[in-house]
Structure formats: C-alpha cells, structure tokens
Amino acid sequence: MKAKAVKLLLALFFLFPLFVLLYFFKIDLNYNAQEILWALKNSFLQSFVTACIAVLCGYFGALGIAGTDGVWQRGLKLLAVIPVFLPSLFSVMIGMSLVSSFPLGTLGVIFILSLIYIGFAASILSEEVMAQLGRLGFVAQVYGLSKFKFHTQVLIPIVGRSTVFIFATIFVNALTSFTIPLLVGGGKGTNFEVLIFEKIFIEQNWSLAVGLSVLQLSLVAIMALCLRARKDIVAAEFYQNRLVASKFGLLGLGLYLGVYFWGYIKLALNTTHIYYFGEIFNDGFYQALWQSFVFFFCCLILFFVLFCAVLYLRYHLKNLRFLNFFLNPSSVLVGFAFYLLLPANHTVFDFWKVALVFSVVGFVSFVKANFENQIQLFEQQIRVARSFGLSFSKFLFTIYFPQIKKRLHFAVSLLFIFCISEFGLVKASGAEIKTLGTEMATYLSSYRTEGAFVISLVILAVWIVATFISGALLGVHKKS
Amino acid sequence: MKHFLAFVAVIFSCLTVFYFYRDDAQTSADYTSLKVYGSGSFIGSWGPGPKLKEIFEKQTGIKITYLEMSDPALVFQKISFEGNQAVGDVILSLDQYDIARSADKLTWKTIESKTSFNLPENLKELEKMEQFKAYDWAPIAFVARDDLKVTIEKLDDLLKPELKGRIALEDPRTSSPGLNFLAWIYKVKPEAEADSFIKQLMAQAHSFSPSWSGAYGLFKNKQADIVLSYATSPVYHLVEEKDSHFTAIEFKEGHPIQVEFAGVPDSCINCDAGVRFVQFLQTPEAQKIIMEKNYMFPMVKSVQEGTAFDGVKNFKLLPFKIDMKEQLQKWLGTWSELRKNEG
User: Fold this and answer.
1) Which residues numbered 103-162 in A keep a CB inside 8 Å of some CB on B?
2) Alpha-carbon gap, residue A164 to B116, rounded angstroms
3) Is A278 on the interface with B (CB under 8 A)?
C-alpha cells in the first residue's frame, strides 16, 4: 500500500509540470502531420548514426578504460564525460578547428554529436563492463577462450542490454538537441526541440507546443518501454585480465581525448592575452561560485530523496517501467511550468525551482545511466534482506550504500558538474540565480566569448577539486 | 556513508541559514523599489545595468532589482497570466521584432520622452512611439577583418565564389539580427528575386547560428571571414582590445537598423518609478553608459562626440519601421520552406 502511494507520488511529481501547463493551456491537436514527420525524419538519421558511432567507439574505449586501474581509471572516466558538460558551441568550434573544410549538414551534425558522446559512451560502458563482468573475464582466460570468442559469447551478451540502453540515451539526447543541428545542420536541422521552439517563440502557439511536447514524451516512452531490463547478475568484484583490456581501445580513447582537449586548450589559450583574470574574477563571479554550491546542494537533496523513493519501490515492487516515460521531457516546457507557478525574484524559491526543474528533466536518465546496473546487481540482496525482515532504511544505509560508495561518488561528481555548469534550465525557468554556467553563458552572449573559456576552465578546476575532496570524505581513494 | 550524509546536511543547513540572513529580496508591494526585467548582457557585470542602477538609486532613492529575462516571449506570457499579481515594472532589451510579434499580449503605459534627440531622418519613426522608448540603436552590417581580399559592396556580392563557406549568419527563427537580415533582403529585392537569393545564400553561408554571439564566436575564431553583426562592432575591438583590424562593410542598398527599447507594462506596481527609469535611460548621462557598455549608438547624438563611435562611418540607412507580425511570419515561413529543401 505504502509502495503504491510512493509510486503514485513519484508519477505525480514527474507529471506535475504537465498538469500546470494543461491548466494554463488547452492542448491543440491540430497538428501538421507532414511537418512532424519531416522533423522526425531529419533528426532520426542524425541521432541513429550518432548513437551507433558513439556506442561502437565507446565500446572499445570502455575496454581501454577497463585495462587501467586506480587514479588513471578514475581520471579517464571523468575526462571522457567532460565534452557533454561543456557548451555545445565549444564542441562545435573544436570540431570545426579539426577539419579544414568542415562538412555542414547531416554529416557535420553527426561529427559534432559523435565528438561529444563517444567519451560519454566509453565512460558509462566501462562502468557497466566492470560492474557486470565480475570474475567472468578471469574465468574465461583460465579456460583459454580466444579474444573473439570472449567478446562474442561472453562480454557482448552480458553488456548487450546496457549497451542498448546507452544507445537509447544518446539517441534521445541527439534527437532533442537544439544548438548543434541549428548551427551545423543545414536544412535538416529542424528536429522536435526546434519545432517546439518555433511554435512558442515564432508562432506564439503554446497550446500546440504543449501538444508537441506530450507527443515527444510519448515517442520517447514508446522507445524506452521497448528496452528490456538486464538479466540479474550476482555482484562480484571486477578482475582485470588480458581478454577485457584493450590497448587498441586505450590508444583510441587517448587519441580522442587528446584531440578534443588539445582543441579546447588551444581555444582557451587564445584568451589569456586579452583578458586579465582579475577582471573576470569580480563580485559577480564569486556570487556565481557561491550560488553554484547552494544549487548543487539543493539538487543533491532532491536527487537523493527521489533516488531513495526509486529504491523503496524496487524494494517492494518490481516494475519501474513507468519512469521511462520521463526519460527526456522538453526542458523549455518543464522550465516554463515552474516559471509560471513559483514567484519570480525570491532567492530561496529560485534555488528550489531550478532544482525541481532539473530533477524532472534529468533525474530519470541520470539514475538510469548511473545506477541501473547497481539496482539490478543488488536485487538478490534485497530478497535476502526482505526474507530476514530487514527494514528498508537499515538495508539501504548499512548494506546497500556502503557497497556502492564508489559509484555514489562518481554520480555525485557528475551531478556536481551538471549543477555548476548549468545555464539552460536556469534561463528556461526564469530563476534569478547565478551559477558558473550562467556566468559562462553571459560571456558567450556578448563580444567577450573568450571569457567563457576562462570560466569553463574554472568549472573544470572546481569540479576536479570537489571530486577529490568528496572522494576523500567518502573514503573512495583508499585501497580496499 | 552516515558521515557523508551528516556532512551534506550540516553544509546545506549552514548555507541556507546564511543565505536567508543575506537575502535582500523585496516584497512586491514595496513602492520604494523597482523590478526591472533585462537581458543577461544588459544587467550582467559587463553590461550597463549595474552602473545605471547605481546612478538611478542615488538620484531617486528608489532601489532597483534586476530580473534576468532569457526571452521576452516567456516574460510576456507569464505577466499576461499573472495579471495584477505580476512582478516587473519595466521590461528592457526589447527589439522591434519582440514588439511586432508578442508585445500585444500585454497592455503598456504611455511614456513621454523628456529628452530631445537629434536622430537621423530614417529613425524619426522612433519619436512617434509612445509605449516603447528606444535607448540605443545600430545599423546591421557585415563585419570583416581588414585583410579580406574580396570586395563586397552589395548583397549580391555575398554570393561570390570566394566567400563560399566563409559567411557566418544567424538563423532568423532564433536570432533578432538574423531576422533583421531576412527582412533586409525582402525590403530591397522583389519577392521572387529575394527567394532565389536566399536559396543561393543557404548553400553559400558557413552556418546559420542560433544566436548573434554564436556567429560572432565563429568569426572571431577565424572559421568565417565575415559575420552578420552591427556597424558598431569594430568599435568594441578598438576600445577593448586595441585592435583596429576589424571593419564594417557598407552596402549600397542601405542598412536596416536594430533598435533596443524599454517599456512599462500596465500590470506594473511602481509605475511612476518605472516610467521615470525609462525616461532616465534616455538622459545623456545614461546614454553614455549604455553606449560604452552595449557598443551601440546612443539616441542622443551629442553623447558620442569625441568618442570612438565618432569614427564609425555614417552608413546609408533604410527607414525604420515596426514590421507587421503577419509579414514577418510569411518571410519566416518562406525561409523555413527554402531551408527544408536544402542541405
């Protein structure tokens, strides 16, 4: 009964923005089917090819990461996800500086999106490989399996479903991306997000935009519902071995990171001769730094509460597929729903407003990317705990969390950089808070674009320091 | 784990208490304060907002609180829903297209200008506007480095083969200068010719960025040779970077004008102060600050005398007028259709 109530509350939480919008606007169902199909057709090709490239390259990159250990492994995993957090414009500039005659159109979009998502796929897939393979690689090595047989008969069947999920995540993100298709996409740039934007800002037709958003949610949900859960696997510590590790993958990943960051550093270095750091590090900067931390803690609390709710449901019920419906709602519309509902210009409200928007927009995909396999892995423990009559909180705090503290640390670290570099949701929800991300966006929207590179360097530096400190607090740097 | 949770709880409690303590938010019924919506670039630390706030507060004793506005359409929609409960006495950073497309969602106060301008003939229309008051303007122009080898004198020159893939433009669906450029083409060419020109330009352009800054960033990184910007852009490089190698290109057809406006919605709480603030923006003192921070021409011509803005060539201008909403939608519709069939 309690679990059903939690499930209902969770569903209501994610549906809440939609209710707000439906209260203010009537859904307009007068769609131009041709236009929608056209937008779908354009973006489908870009998203599908991007997801294929990212997952394929990411697979080999993941094997490269799996061949390292300690600080190198953690460092590579974190470095690889950075392109996702930097503003799209940086990736576009880096991508364009790599190719002398940049191919605009579909090819250009795929190139830039792949540049952003290969590292993300490698990082998340490496987590999946290590979490799910356990000692099987070592066992296969003892049995003398060839590398080819190991990959086709052991590793791919095990991580296959995780790979499909990562593919879907990249596909959905690429499908709803806005800046890149518009910037380098040529005529095929119009996708669903652009279409929603056009309805709101050009035609002022909010009703149609809300309708399109519901349609987008439904399309994503249909796709996400087709994703089947992984098989249950017994948790076991990962054993590194020569069958899993790939020098080719490590070299490829190193090359990818080298090319990306060399492009980034080149762009950032061009800035230092123009800007005096003292002018950038003004009162506004320190306010943004301070507020970034407050925003992060608001998000951390909300994400933690929601995560506990998800675990509680997993403890009592099995089916959490309804969450897939909320994999990637339109950030403009969710932001606007909270914008309408909560008062403007109230600092405390504003922090919570953006944290709520971020939770609705990003929580499901964040948890699925970071914890899906952990939830699966510990299901057997849940059964044992329940059979012994262990309370949920006891199980959570004394058994489950201590076992996944490294993963928790990784997730908190990702949440931290998400929060401090966030600016799109802050603007969409009309919140009057500053983050380092909004500070960066202010520079990006002026003549002083170079200042944005300096701020992005600061974001990365703050992230590395915070990750190290939180790691020390959680004891993840200790060798177990 | 418990230590970590305790740590998080303690840190957050401290931050919250500290923040409540320093929170300086005002209640909406406070008649000694003014809530002003503006773009990030206006109210940010590099923009004119902070300095204007300081002077206005000193002169009037009325405290200004800036509210950042990501897009005027969102703010108009919110205020129209909230009616009398709405927060926001003044809305800044509006351009002629915001006014044409979405200002009719709200009703606006009439504001009387207290400053007399000496505007160019083609901008006289601005003096007749009663609800929205202009505070800066600039001709739209292509900007290049002075080592550009191609001669560009008219719109058709943009189609020269040497410029293929070297022009950074803005998407008119998402960018105001981009929309101004689209309107420029339709205003100086017959419709069929304009359609054909746009079609060719789509294959010619480097990219259509979602915003002016995106296009300008590409240009600054030398990924494009020319960029659609403002005739005043080279002044920024001259003043801030001491770089005189940037130049705005004059076109024979004449240049369209981008104007920024302020307005006071009828839902205002402190309306008189709102009107006073808009009038203050047009005073020479405020105009100088806006000019120096926004790198746009002031409405009061005398303000630019003796400054780097004096060196900007007087381009031939197209007459300023607020275009009809339907006309803009038609142009955008055509642009979108042509774009669909390209790339």
Assistant:
1) 104-106
2) 67
3) no
Give A254-295 pLDDT, tens digit per residue: 999 999 998 888 877 766 656 666 677 878 888 899 999 999
What's the whole-model pTM score? 0.79
Distance CA B238, CA A299 (A): 43
Q: Is A180 on the interface with B (CB under 8 A)?
A: no
Burial class of A219 by CB neighbour count within 10 A (0 to 12, 13 to 18, 19+)? middle
Residue B1 has its nearest CB partner, among A183, A194, A405, at A405
Q: Which of B122, B69, B116, B59 is nearest to B262 (CA)?
A: B69
**Measured between beta carbons, which residues in chain B are less than 8 angstroms from residue A279?**
none
Q: Assess whether B247 and B169 both reside in one domain.
A: yes
Please provide the CATH number assigned to the domain covering A2-18+29-474. Answer: 1.10.3720.10
Residue A90 · residue A264 · CB < 8 Å: yes
B321 and B238 within one domain: yes
B290 HSE (CA, 13 A, CB side): 28
* B270 and B130 within one domain: yes
pLDDT of B4 over the 70 cut? no
* Whether residue B251 sits in one domain with residue B143: yes
Check: CB of residue A46 under 8 Å from CB of residue A185.
yes
Residue pairs between chains A and B whose CB atoms are closer than 8 Å: 174
Is residue B14 situated within a structural domain?
no
**pLDDT of res. A478:** 64
Summarize the confidence of residues B87-103 as an average pLDDT.
89
Is there a contact between B340 and A187 if contact means CB atoms under 8 Å apart? yes
Q: Are B328 and B188 in the same domain? A: yes
Q: How many domains does chain B have?
A: 2
How many Cβ atoms are within 10 Å of A424's Cβ, its own excluded? 21
Task: Look up residue B122 and give its two tokens.
Answer: 């083609």
CA nearest A123: which of A49, A174, A68, A50?
A68
Count of beta carbons in the 10 Å neighbourhood of residue B24: 7
Q: Do A197 and B11 touch (CB under 8 A)?
A: no
> What CATH number is attached to the domain comprising B322?
3.40.190.10
Is B82 domain-assigned?
Answer: yes
- Nearest-CA distance from B341 to chain A in Å? 6
Integer Cα distance of A358 and A14 in angstroms: 11
CB contact under 8 A, A182 and B208: yes
Cβ neighbour number for residue A465 with a 10 Å cutoff: 10
If asked whether residues B203 and B324 sit together in one domain, one would say yes
Which portions of chain A are predicted below pLDDT 50? 232, 234
pLDDT digits (tens, 9 = 90+) for B313-323: 889 999 998 88
**B191 & B207 share domain:** yes
Residue B241, min C-alpha distance to chain A (Å): 7
Which token pair is A28? 């307009």
Mutate to test the interface with B, among A442, A454, A467, A473 (most CBs of B within 10 A): A442
Domain spans of chain A, in order of start: 2-18+29-474
Task: Tell me, yes or no, whether B51 and B68 share the same domain.
Answer: yes
pLDDT computed for residue B23 by the predictor: 44
Domain carrying residue B108 = 25-137+258-311
